[in-house]
Amino acid sequence: MDVFDKSGDGALQLDEFVTVDRFRNQLESLAREEKRLAYEAEQEKKRQEQEALLAEAKLEFLNEKEPTGRDKIISVLPYLFPLMDGLQYGRFLLAGQDEGTGNPFIVILAVLYSLYRSIPFSGFAAFFALNFLSGNPGINRLVRFNMQQAIFLDIALFFPSLLVSLGGLIAKGANVQLPAAAGELFSDVMFGTLLLTLTYCAISSLLGREPADIPLLSNAVRERMPTIDMFDDSGRFVPEERNKDEKKDDDEK
User: Fold this and answer.
1) Gap between the terminal Cα atoms of the chain
2) Sign of the C-alpha dihedral, residues 179, 180, 186, 188?
3) Of 93, 128, 154, 225, which is least packed with CB atoms within 10 Å of its CB?
4) From the centroid of its chain, how far is CA 99?
5) Which helix H or strand E contains 251, and what residues bound it?
6) Residue 56 and residue 170: Cα distance in Å, rounded?
7) What's the rounded Cα separation, in Å, for the pair 157 and 82?
């Protein structure tokens, strides 16, 4: 009716009737179009189902699920690495504690530090172990995030020591004697900052949230974490740089 009703009055006038062949051809055309639309709808449904299955497989492979209670506890352990290496800054504060009080915190730290130092090349071993395990997509994201952030925190501890060494060399070259209280204050501030940072990381992790608010470090960690977008349609891992290059090529085309 829409095709042959030229006048648009909702009825076919005598002059609007056409041959039976044209009617038949139009009906066949409508039937073909209906089948085509139904086929495309079926194909679209299958495509969406395949994408949903692929997305589920990616999530299963990448393990970005909600962390379990076990995952939350394990995610705190990597921060023992920067804590052990950062104890050098707490030597004045810890030495000032009265040994007779039997402070359990000091006792635990002393035992852990003794065990840590008793292992040859413990720092290198911890670094490579965390770096290797953080690349395992089967480990929960919270645990992998904290492993990477613990590595960055440990690396960050190197720079204050470097600045102190350079400052001491410069002062020595200028025949300037720095007061011992200045070095002690610097170490105390560094150790206090480290403890506050690790406390924040531990509390956030135990609550199941990524401790991703540490300036500079957390952003660097997020950039290293693989995401679902880094996997192609066949489930293969594609680095972020390659994804950006392919997207740039598509935009240029």
Assistant:
1) 43
2) negative
3) 128
4) 42
5) helix 240-252
6) 58
7) 8
